[in-house]
Amino acid sequence: MEAIMKKGSDVLLQIHVIPSSKKFGIEKYDSWRKRLYVTVKSPARKGKANKEIIEEFSKLFNKEVKIVKGIKSRDKTLVVKDVEYKKIMEIIRGKLK
């Protein structure tokens, strides 16, 4: 899955955000765009969707998560700090529908 990349002791995630959805979730992997499609309840206004993304992914992985690219875009790059690539892959595969 090319949306998930190892970088040193961190893991980068390439996501596409769908705001104002019914719930938070990792919906699918788009192999053409090489991104995970992520739904969030919050609207894309005043950083609300970004805040939800950081909170939900931090809970999901039990690690620090930051947005490193795409603060004002639906296409974002997240970094998960100090985590094993294999663990992230297992969690993501378990969440994909």
UniProtKB/TrEMBL annotation:
CC per GO annotation: cytoplasm
Cross-referenced Gene3D superfamilies: YggU-like
Source species, domain of life: Archaea
Family annotation (Pfam families): DUF167
Annotated SMART domains: DUF167
Family per similarity comment: Belongs to the UPF0235 family.
PANTHER family from the UniProt entry: UPF0235 PROTEIN C15ORF40
Protein name (database record): UPF0235 protein Mfer_0383
Organism: Methanothermus fervidus (strain ATCC 43054 / DSM 2088 / JCM 10308 / V24 S)
